[in-house]
Amino acid sequence: MSSEALKKRKAKVLRNEAGPTEVKRGRGDGDQQDIRVYNEEVELDGRDHEEDFLQFKESCEGLATLMGEIQKLKASGAKEGCAEVEQKRLQSCNHFMTLKKLNRLAHMRLKRGRDQTHEAKQKVDVLHLQLQNLLYEVLHLQKEISKCLEFKSKHEEIDLVSEEEFYKDAPQEISRPQLTKNDPHQLTLARLDWELEQRKRLAETYKESQASKEKIQKSIEIKKEHLRSLQPGLNAIMQASLPVQEYLAVPVEQTQKHTEIAQHLPPPLYVLFVQANAYGQACDKKLTVSISGDVDEAKAMSKPPEDSQDDDSDSDAEEEQEKTKRRRSTAGGQLDDKRREMLKRHPLSLSFDLTCKDGSVLSLYFYYLINLNIMTVKAKISASTDLTTAISAGELVKSETLLSCLYSNDHGTETPNPANRYQFDKVGIGSFADYVEELGHPYKWVQNLGGLNFPSDTSEGVLVGSSLSASHMENTMKLLRGRVMSRLALHKQFASLEHNIIPVTSECLYLFPAKILSRLTQWTTITQEEYMNLTFTRHVTDAGLAKETDMYFSGVVERGTARLQAAVVLNPRYPEISPLFSLSLNWKGERSGHTDDNLRAMESEVNVFKNELQGPRPGYQLLTNQISRLCVCLDVYLETEEQDDGVEGPREFPREKMCLRTVKGPNRLKPFKYNHPLGLFSHR
Amino acid sequence: MGPVELLHMSVFSQSFSPCGRFLAAGNNYGEIAIFSLCAALSPDTSEAGRKPVLTFSAHDGPVFCLESFGGHLLSAGDGSVSAWNWAELIKKNVKAVWTRRPEYKASMEIPEINAMVINPRDNSVVFGGGDNNVHILDLEHGVFKSVFRGHTDYVHCLSVREREGEVLSGSEDGAVRIWDTRTSQCVHCVEVHKYQKCARPQFGKWISCLTTDSDWMLCGGGPSLSLWHLRSLTPTSVFALSGCQRRATFYQDMILAVGQGPTVSHCLLGGQVKAQIPCTPNNINSLELNTNSAEHQVLTVAGSSQFVDVFTNVSYRAFSLCF
């Protein structure tokens, strides 16, 4: 240890002499004795800090022992400056020197470490900055790329002709197939060129057409002028021909008059008039149309459309005056007046006479309510036969119900124009139904015939169209005629039903066996309320099949002690919608379609399998055939009823009908179906 | 189908799908309707959920019987038996897999099939009807294996005693016949109306419902509904129900019976009538319990109306499915 310490001391001395290191190195470079040149930093490189630490520890321990020994010596009474103490002091000084050296080395090491860290950090910073720059550049480039990709050229919106067409039609100098075949870009350019070329051409044609159109228009004008100049001449000829017409009895003038009056009809009635006339001439010779009412009043109300403009304003002014006049009258009267004004009919009306095959005539009177913008109709039947014979049939030909539900759900009691509701609110009219008797029924089909179309959910958009009228005319006329025929047929049938005779025509005889023992004993009309009060009709009412517009009848079929009551719902659209029967049998206790499956089967026999019973088209004999079948079914029911073996005596109803089997199926139904040529009964 | 046809509709037969989620019902117009029980039983169901998911025309006459077996729906009514694949029906593909008709003796009209039961033991269908005979159709080969002749009027109802290899048939002639399937011979013939306890001469003698459970048999119709001990062939209890019963079944420790009248009767085995639960149809033709699915365990009842009543709990009617 001591030799090392000595070396250090020497080195230290040398350094102290030497000054700055560079100078030393320079000098060291100069002479060969660089070993002697001391550089502490170089020394630092050569030393290991672990070793230094151990050395430091050693020195500290050495120092501590030396101090201890000195203290011991002093305590044992050694004098100041005693050789032993002195020696020890020198040794400790050595140790101090070593410590100092180590301290310096430690400081230098620290500084170097710091420098190195700093340097490395700077390097990292630079790299980081570089990275940031690059990333930003990448982002920017990506943006540019996406912008390029998203670029939309104007030409893409242009509708180009297809490629094949292009190659076929375009000239070579535009299409340049050798260049464009493989280059889509060139191809698009070429196609655009071609498009431009074509458009230019089209623009030119357009201009030409425009010019020719103008030319034609001009020539039309000239021709019109010419035609107009003919009018006075023709009028003069007409005037001159009047005596000749009278002489030859040609009704040219009359129809002209008709049409002249028709000029004053309000638009819907006019549409109806024209369409009905046209239909009558084309398809239906038995339809006659006439106009009735006060023509002068109508003239006052509306002038022909030629000079309408000034007159309209005039009449408006008049109306204004009238209104102001009315305002002065008393409040109650005012409301009354308003109501009357609201429900005012046009003075002109149309009457149709529709003659049916058997000579009976259906008269229809069409009215137009000016302020409500709806049409109404009244109907009257004049039959070729006497209509007073059947009491129960009174409902059938009443004008109120005659036309109801011509189309389904068209009851004709409420106004079909949704705007009317607001008008009614203003003057306090609750429902149009109260005025129906006086004004006629506003059926929807009437509006359609007049070309009035009311969309069901909006209050505006009233459309007048003769096409609408024409589309409904034929169908409606057919329906009207069918309705009259069916009602008259029913009427006739009811007359005999009331006398307990079921009229079965020869065409329908095959539907029933020759011998029917059950007899109809009663046929009456009942009200809806009475119908609903019957217990055995509940299922019909519950199913919503008994409506207010329907007619209700009750019939009784009897045989022996058995009494079958049938309640019938007759839809106004009969025979299109067949009558609905509900049954109740009073025999050995009360039974109905509810409780007895066989009575239910009888009901379905007449209600469901009605198609067999329709007879010749259009099935006016349906009702009577249904009643006949009911009689037959009752016969079968009674004759096949199980005989209680325990009861003595003969059967009340001996079996006369031929049946294949008397019961069938899980619910033990009786054979109600009649097989015509064989004359026997079987199951469905 | 118009409103009048709906008004006069009768439902004769019902059957649950093997998965228990669908119900097939056959009506008097020869149609079969498939209802989805999931849709009908879901808490937020609407009217549409109670309408059939599929209605198709299956037979010319009424569909008197429906049975589900091995993924197929078997239907019968107008003399022939048809099979429909349940999986295809659910996908709304309507095509009969097969149709078989036994050779009937020449007759004016085609005899109807009133009853059909499955005999799973030998994989066959037993059915009977208008020709007074009971036919056995082997499902394995699709051939008619045997015919049981003996009834003098048409067959109303059938029941299979699987373990004993016996088939029971009830007929319009008033007899319940017990047949041995191996020999095709009639083993016993019970004429129910001859027993004083059961007879109701005011109605008649036909037997229209028949069910068996181990040694016990339920039968009724013209005669009162009665519980029979089969080994001794004696009636043990007679149920005092007013109308003629058309369908009866054992349910837990009770008997459920339906027929004329708008009620489902709950009877105890001892003979007492415990309850009569009202339902929509006035006469009931069919009563079916869904045991195929635990979550849709319902009782359905149908008859002379377009409605099929659903009971989620046997003691009250929950709602109706509608054709």
UniProtKB/TrEMBL annotation, chain A:
Annotated InterPro entries: THO_Thoc5
Localization recorded for this chain is: Nucleus
The answer to keyword Nucleus applying to this record is yes
Q: What start and end residues bound the annotated signal peptide?
A: none
Which portions of the sequence form the region Disordered? 1-32, 296-340
* Segments passing through the bilayer: none
The entry lists its GO molecular-function terms as: mRNA binding
Family matches, as Pfam families: FmiP_Thoc5 (PF09766)
Q: Which GO terms describe its biological process?
A: mRNA export from nucleus
Q: Which keywords annotate this record?
A: Nucleus
Keyword check for Transmembrane = no
Renumbered to this chain, the Acidic residues biased-composition regions fall at: 307-321
Q: Where is the composition biased (Basic and acidic residues)?
A: 22-32, 296-306
Gene Ontology terms: cellular component: THO complex part of transcription export complex
Give the protein family. Answer: Belongs to the THOC5 family.
Q: How is this protein named in the record? A: THO complex 5
- The organism is Hippocampus comes
UniProtKB/TrEMBL annotation, chain B:
N-terminal signal peptide = none
Where does the record place its WD repeats?
148-189
SUPFAM superfamilies per the UniProt record, alphabetical:
WD40 repeat-like (SSF50978)
Against PROSITE patterns, the record matches this protein to: WD_REPEATS_1, WD_REPEATS_2, WD_REPEATS_REGION
Q: GO CC annotations? A: THO complex; transcription export complex
Q: Which Gene3D superfamilies match?
A: YVTN repeat-like/Quinoprotein amine dehydrogenase
Q: InterPro entries under this entry?
A: THOC6, WD40/YVTN_repeat-like_dom_sf, WD40_repeat_CS, WD40_repeat_dom_sf, WD40_rpt
Q: Which GO terms describe its biological process?
A: mRNA export from nucleus
- Superkingdom, according to UniProt? Eukaryota
| Keyword annotations from UniProtKB, A to Z | Repeat, WD repeat
Q: Which family does it belong to?
A: Belongs to the WD repeat THOC6 family.
Q: What is this protein called?
A: THO complex 6
Q: Which organism is it from?
A: Hippocampus comes (Tiger tail seahorse)
